[in-house]
Amino acid sequence: MKCWLAFAALAVIAVTGAGHAEGLSGQYIEARTCDIWTGQCFANAEINLIGKNAVMGWKIDKGQFDGVQLDGLGVVAVIASSDTLGLQQTGPSKALLIVDAKATKSQKAALVKLAKEQGGELTKNVIGVESAKIELTTCECENKACAKLEAGAAHIETRCLKSHDKVCGHEDAIYPPLSKGVTARAAVAAEHGFKGDAFKTTWKEIDRRGAYVGTFEVK
To answer: What is the pLDDT of residue 118?
Structure first.
């Protein structure tokens, strides 16, 4: 199934206060620059050396947020943190948001607010809101962990975990998903990267066991 989301340019939108969701649910994907599904010894070796960047994406199937209908719309957050994601942070994170160009002004504001709430401290400090054509493709595989997200300067392509992805035989999902209300499976980020100008760094990775694919629900 293919879901196409188009995004247009807009300025940073300031939003405050908690939002109210009504029957809001959809698809979720994330990838980070450290292993998620791994052995504890491997995770320990990566702590605060890598894993400080991520891409998070929400695509709404149906529902309202702050009384605004968001069916079929989406929002993406690109994250730069001070410490390895999943650990306690010693400094503020920065987030670049991409909001659906098909949305009205009120829908765009609701999507930004949704991303800020779902991402918590990681999306609290929004440094910019950019536009891009977004292509989200999901496919059926053994554990439904196959997906592809194109969001302008951000990119994720995942595949299912296979037996050859095991290194030590004690792999587990060391870190939970970065977003609230998510039900997801760990996956391999076959490709994952960001090549924009919002941060002082860009990244490109291949075959990192650092992705989640699933669904989200906001109650």
So the answer is: 96
